[in-house]
């Protein structure tokens, strides 16, 4: 298949690109490098041994999107491009709605023009909000508590309505839980440009000595050790869920919303301990106040993913930590190093 991967230079998109190339798909990565680096694309080419089309563009630019889809004519789109920081979304709501919601509308309009009828969308477990019951299944009511979550929920609804109006189309809305880990090669991984918002990248930077200690945001939750519990999923498992979703979209018309998680939870303390074992380093921490908006526990019921796509997570917590550590050690500054370049908007390179 010809697959347009928006946001394919980012953390989850880059791992998915490698899985798609391994399956001999023809891909085109479209990204504006707002939160990623062209160096990542060079590494994907090196690791996969494949060249692919690359477009530097902004999903907020409706006209450019139409031009790029007209030129590439994808059979399917995997839409990762978006802004994802919960805290920042409260400070810059309009920007978040513009990129995450208007960007999705621009993409759908461009898909219509070019005749593309299949979309896989990166949604988030954050759309559920506070649990009424656990684990979260896909029928759990959605009441997102932050701007970011609302943008994802709106984009889901827009895609669902787009699909409902086109009987020959399909949409798979993947709700990711907590992606962590890195590729086995240690050549690609999560590369936060600023202070990490998420737990594991922060822990990893403490282990390597870039930061002094981890703050545990609250130890008085109703969990087995009082700290927050989450469903962490290895990014390679998550990437493979996209390949499975593409196969589902290819054989099935309609919209499917699917959780992508393991079904198991780990607390903050357990994550720190696991990372300490994997890295062989002490990880100092301090318990602080709860982070506003956090919930005690978030765990997926992943059974629909297995039923519909034959997909389930395979990698262990230790593999999540050892791969993160290997990536961190080999790339202490992420993708930023000598030779890093900043491409101009709308550069196009056909592979
Ligand atoms: P990421 O920031 O690493 O990747 C997003 C990519 O989109 C980046 O390469 C960025 O440069 C690009 N991008 C941002 N704005 C753009 C724009 N206007 N035009 C074109 N490209 C743009 O994030 P990620 O962790 O890989 O997340 C990918 C998707 O999955 C996002 O939509 C995110 O909301 C969603 N998601 C992520 C998580 C998570 O914890 N990482 C959890 C649930 C859902
Ligand atoms: C995990 C646990 C924290 C950092 C977020 C987004 C969600 C999705 C994934 C995009 C919690 C605790 C964290 C730290 C800590 N992203 N923690 N100290 O909040 O479950 O989900 O990322 O879609 O939308 O909300 O992930 O990694 O921030 O936190 O104690 O320095 O670690 O309180 O219990 P979260 P997280």
From TrEMBL:
This protein's pathway reads: Carbohydrate metabolism; galactose metabolism
Which reactions does this protein catalyse?
Answer: UDP-alpha-D-glucose = UDP-alpha-D-galactose
Annotated region (Disordered) at 329-351
Q: Which residues form the NAD(P)-binding domain?
A: 4-323
Recorded hits in Pfam families, A to Z, give: GDP_Man_Dehyd
Entry's EC annotation: 5.1.3.2
Cofactor(s) for this UniProt protein: NAD(+)
Q: What class of enzyme is it?
A: isomerase
Which BP terms from GO are recorded? galactose metabolic process
According to the record, the segments passing through the membrane are none
Q: Which GO terms describe its molecular function?
A: UDP-glucose 4-epimerase activity
The record's annotation in Gene3D superfamilies points to: NAD(P)-binding Rossmann-like Domain, UDP-galactose 4-epimerase, domain 1
Check the record and name the InterPro entries matching this protein.
Answer: NAD(P)-bd_dom, NAD(P)-bd_dom_sf, UDP_G4E
Entry's Gene Ontology cellular component terms: cytosol
Q: Which UniProt keywords apply?
A: Carbohydrate metabolism, Isomerase, NAD
The entry describes its oligomerization and partners as: Homodimer.
Q: Which family does it belong to?
A: Belongs to the NAD(P)-dependent epimerase/dehydratase family.
Q: Know the name of this protein?
A: UDP-glucose 4-epimerase
Which species? Answer: Limimaricola soesokkakensis
Q: Which gene encodes it?
A: galE_3
